[in-house]
Specification:
three-stranded antiparallel β-sheet; four-stranded antiparallel β-sheet; mainly beta
Amino acid sequence: WQRVWLEPVAPTHIKRLRTTPDIDRRVLTVEAITDGDDKGVVEVSLTNRDGSVISGRALISQPVELEMPADAKLWSPDAPELYPLTVKLLNDGKCVDAVGSYAAFRKFSTARDGDGNMRLQLNNKNLFQFGQLDQGWWPDGLYTAPSDAALKFDLEKQKELGYNMVRKHIKVEPARWYAHCDSLGLIVW
């Protein structure tokens, strides 16, 4: 039910990324989780909406904080803005690994309204979340979608029906499914 691939990597390499947006401080924190030697530097570059690049560096195992501009576009179901990221692992000034990804600048929280009722919020504003329960079954593959296009097709139809979220039931989807949700503007429960 998950795609499998083999990829040759250097002895010291980036295993995964963790991005944490803080819209209140206008900071995006990027952590590169690495395997191998703990010497070196992580360099993060984010391409801004106007094409400018915001970058920062930190020692391996330390987070990189990028200060976002005052006009940074917040991700929402109506405007799912994604910022391209490039993360490099440098050792003695030489790039030993590089990863391309993206980040969304958003905040999910809860707050009480004037009557004391708890409300779901996106980017510090109440947002009624409307969606369906998605069990992720496929008639010709059960847990496995027949193609990436099929994964995206289902999500596009949910957006066309006016949903702004999807509740996943029973299973964990492949990473590509979550990327489609981010780019289409679907919140995942």
